[in-house]
Target: Aldehyde dehydrogenase
Amino acid sequence: MNIPEPDNAVSVSEIQLPSPRNYIDGSFSEPASAPGPLLHDPNTGGVLQDQRVSDGEQIADALAAVDKAYRVGAWEEYSPAERAQVLELIADRLAAPEYAEKMALADALTTGTAIRVTRLMASLVPFVFRGAAAYIRGGELQQMLPGKAGEVEYFRKPWGPSLLISPWNGPTAIGSHKIASALAAGAPCILKPSEWTPHSALIMAEVIAELDLPRGTFQLVCGNGKTGATMVEDPRIRAISFTGGIAGGQAIASATAGRFVPLQLELGGNNPLVVMADADLDAAAEGIVYGLTNLNAQWCRALGRLLVHRSVKDDLLEIVVDKLRNVKMGHSLDETSDMGPLIHKDHYQLVQSEIDRLQSLGGNLISATPLPDLSGYFIAPTLVDGCTPEQSLGEIFGPVACIHTFDTEEEALVLANGTAYGLAAYVYSKDEQRARVFARRIRCGGVKINGFSLLALSGVAPRGAWGVSGLGEEGTRQSIDFFTGARVVGVSPQDVIGGSGAP
Ligand code: NAD
Model:
């Protein structure tokens, strides 16, 4: 293995990428099956390690343990305050620089996302656990409500053994949110991280293992889509939180339909950014570049389609090209990189084939970012002009977006609502009130006005998904509630037989 070192700061050879391991029924073990595809350093193509997959016996052990943990009910019986205390301990430990930095380095090295971004994401992990703790400390899972014959107890209780399946992009942020939410709900759970990025999950498992929770409360099972599907199909699994592509979401919905398993499906997006005629073009250009570069646009809320008023298109594109020229594309571990490579060769080829397809349909490629002198999977952020809206309906999941023009707001709205997705949208106009009116009509989970950020609009607002972008909402409250069902206990009112008492 001969991997060139980046010029700045961290060097690849210093990174101890943990080998994929399972945490099943209270013990760590190596996933037993023969390795699948190799994990490569996306910066250089150099081999990093084997991709390891659990075998049937390990999966069966994990399912038996999560089921037993639920039947014993020890974790569920912890009071919300006791569970909150555990979540806060996890937060404290994961805030320690050695863990946060390990997760950030692993994510940057395995996904190609720039280290500055993965550090930001790792730094948010403790807040995710603390937020879940604060929510359940607030008494939301156990309340007294007025009833017809005295007070009624209203509980939210875990549905049962829960399965958490995360994707390769944002593995630390997505994995931590799922773990914190399931544990806060009192649900014993199994996390199956992506086969491409199991490392930060392993670091979180190491921290949780030290806390000696009741056996089977938290487990980690490494593996691929088949591993996930095997667990999805098991009748002992009573709730599934999945983040990934539409195909996986559809497979899970089909496999569980007969069991009525509650599903939280966070799928893809093809997110429009609308630039009105009166927009601050510099700010809009900044947003476009951010949407094409942040997380290397391997991000469900990345820029999908640029919708621009015809009168400002040329001026806008001029500014965008200027800004793209100054994007520093480089090694993902280089502190000065704005953007790194795509995760792996197959994904690189997929994104490249989309560019080729759009170009073959008459698309004109607009791209100005210099590629680094590295042999990895780099694709410069690219806008494609000249294709029809019907030719850009899917999710590319890379730094490529089509440009479409409009003359009226009604046309812009039709374009914005013109795909089957409905995750995120962005609107730029100097008239904030007008932008709000327009934004309210976009059928998607969240619309940001005059800005493009990795962070949610509000820490307490739900993150919704419309159309094929998913099912169910995410958020501290929403995700904890997702793992629970309502149970109401109280003394019954007495019906008056033959009387006229209202129900
Ligand atoms: P993917 O669907 O290929 O895999 C996601 C996870 O599901 C992996 O752990 C994989 O092993 C597992 N999996 C795949 N098929 C499965 C099946 N049939 N049953 C059970 N598990 C299965 O997605 P990916 O390539 O890892 O991630 C990229 C996709 O995720 C993109 O489409 C992106 O938009 C989406 N995503 C959505 C959000 C969101 O919040 N909406 C966030 C991040 C990523």
Q: What stands out?
A: The chain has 15 helices and 20 strands.
